[in-house]
């Protein structure tokens, strides 16, 4: 049974604002591939669980042939995974944008597809423009942050969305490094290194004194 783009968009739209949790696949928390699998399952399409498996299971298509509802993948270049084994996936909504569950500390939202490594089709039918626009307008598709109530006809330019997407990736890395800095294990490793270095220097000094005394 064919599934329309409007059905996929409606399912994805309903998840906007839900919390990202690594390894989660619903009902109100998701990681990236958990979100895509759940939305597809609710629409009657069975796809694998991980982004890598979803990438390999779908039919490769280019952006020109992608319809809203197709999956768009990311790997390397600031994302987990590689171009051939991508670590991130989102649901394409058209206009250079997608709905995705991006990372810890974020919610399901609308992001740019800049930097993608490919699209995959799973039998989604291209809904008529009226259906797609209706789904977009009712669900607030068309913003980079997933704020509802904004018409899909007034989406931000791709360059602006890309800028904020890059800034978000940079902020995510800073946040991750900040967390690592304050983890106890980080300080244990640092203390062990300093102690070891001090012990070696102290040993060399003692050996030097013994040599001079001889």
What does this structure look like?
The protein contains six helices and twelve strands. It is an alpha+beta fold and 214 residues long. It folds into two domains: 3-157, Alpha-Beta Complex (endopeptidase fold (from Nostoc punctiforme)); 183-213. The strands form four sheets. Strands 4-11-5-8-9-10 form a six-stranded antiparallel beta sheet. Strand 8 (88-94) and strand 9 form a beta hairpin. The protein is elongated and about 90 Å long.
Secondary structure topology:
Elements: E1 3-4, H1 5-13, E2 19-20, E3 29-30, H2 32-42, H3 51-57, E4 59-61, E5 71-74, E6 81-82, E7 85-86, E8 88-94, E9 97-100, E10 109-112, E11 118-121, E12 124-125, H4 129-139, H5 158-181, H6 184-213
Parallel strand pairs: 1-12, 2-3
Antiparallel strand pairs: 4-11, 5-8, 5-11, 6-7, 8-9, 9-10
The chain-level structural class is alpha+beta
The helix-strand sequence is: EHEEHHEEEEEEEEEHHH
The mean pLDDT is: 78
Please state the second-level CATH architecture of the largest domain: Alpha-Beta Complex
Which outline best applies?
A: elongated
Q: What is the CATH T-level topology of the largest domain? A: endopeptidase fold (from Nostoc punctiforme)
What is the end-to-end distance? 91 Å
The share of residues in helices is 40-55%
Strand content: 15-25%
Strand order of the largest sheet: 4-11-5-8-9-10
How many β-strand stretches? 12
Low-confidence stretches: 137-166
**Rg, Å, rounded:** 24 Å
Largest sheet: 6 strands, antiparallel
Query: What is the CATH C level class of the largest domain, in words?
Result: Alpha Beta
